[in-house]
Design brief:
32% of the residues lie in helices and 15% in strands. With 184 residues, the chain is α+β, with helices and mostly antiparallel strands. The chain has a domain of 127 residues. Strands 3-6-5 form a 3-stranded antiparallel sheet. A 3-stranded antiparallel sheet has the order 4-8-7. It has a two-stranded antiparallel ribbon with strand order 1-2. A hairpin with a 7-residue loop joins strand 1 and strand 2. The longest helix has 13 residues.
Length: 184
Amino acid sequence: MQTLDNTNPVTIPATAIADTAKPVSKPAAKSSGKAKPAAKPETTTPATPIRDIAAERLTAKQLHAAFEAQRLSVPVKTTAVFKPVAVTAHPIARKPSMRQAAAIAVAFAASKAKLADNGTASRVFKFDAAELCIENGALRDAISSGLITASGQAGNETIKLSKNAAKTILGLIGEKLARKAGLL
């Protein structure tokens, strides 16, 4: 321990002094007096690789993994262990949630559909060689919150985004992630 001065003794640990000390800088080298010639501009144009935008997009599997990386459970299940039933709106009003938005986004990405008002996608979709389906409860909540409407028979429903739902879903999942997944 060291003190700053005797008139106002303040104790400072030695490590604090060492951490804040500035490194000693070396004096600048002397110039030879001659000006250096200007660098010649590059005359050849470097080859720019052609981007394969489709290859850069996230697949539905990668989108699902991105949601799981955020510790978000995406409410989709395989139809081998889950039986979809015809759904209606939940009797208690719901607010749009990240979980509802994630399920809808994965369904739209798997259907290769754009996330736009009045856009449609299938409730049941192929995902990594498995047939998946949005869970009954999550779909009921999404209908109740006003994000989507569902039509068709159980297990063969088509989900349709409501007016202004695309904006709400983008606000929940983020535009960057939606753009990478090809939803925009």
